[in-house]
């Protein structure tokens, strides 16, 4: 049976472990959250394309920084 192309974070981590790719599940999650790793949201899950994941590991894109919001609650002091 061929491996699936689109996987959840957990499935991507499991496949990476099976192929001896040294990444943590937290690294994958953070890369998805900050927009550096392309993914598709399906309900509450994020689906990661395996080929895009491998391309990201070979040439990581800089993280997309959210624009600062105007107003709202901000931390005061240091």
Task: Note the main attributes of this structure.
alpha+beta; three-stranded antiparallel sheet; elongated
Q: Could you walk me through the main structural features you see in this protein, from its secondary elements to its overall organization?
A:
- With 78 residues, the chain is α+β, with helices and mostly antiparallel strands.
- The protein has helices spanning 9-18, 25-33, 50-58, and strands spanning 6-7, 40-42, 45-49.
- It has a three-stranded antiparallel β-sheet with strand order 1-3-2.
- The model has no long low-confidence stretch (mean pLDDT 86).
What would you say about this model in short?
With 78 residues, the chain is α+β, with helices and mostly antiparallel strands. It is built from 3 helices and 3 strands.
Topology at a glance:
Elements: E1 6-7, H1 9-18, H2 25-33, E2 40-42, E3 45-49, H3 50-58
Antiparallel strand pairs: 1-3, 2-3
- How would you sum up the global shape? elongated
Largest sheet report: 3 strands, antiparallel
Share of helical residues: 25-40%
Structure class: alpha+beta
Number of helices: 3
Number of strands: 3
Detail the poorly predicted runs: none
Distance between the termini: 55 Å
The H-and-E topology, N to C, reads as EHHEEH
Strands across the major sheet, in which order?
Answer: 1-3-2
Radius of gyration: 15 Å
Instruction: State mean pLDDT (0 to 100 scale).
Output: 86
Percent strand: 5-15%
């Amino acid at each position: 049976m061929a491996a699936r192309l689109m996987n959840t974070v957990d499935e991507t981590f499991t496949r990476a472990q099976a192929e001896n790719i040294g990444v943590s599940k937290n690294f994958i999650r953070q890369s998805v959250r900050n927009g550096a790793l392309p993914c598709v949201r399906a309900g509450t899950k994020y689906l990661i394309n395996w080929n895009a994941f491998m391309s990201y590991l070979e040439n990581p894109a800089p993280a997309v920084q959210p624009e600062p919001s105007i107003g709202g609650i901000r931390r005061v002091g240091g």
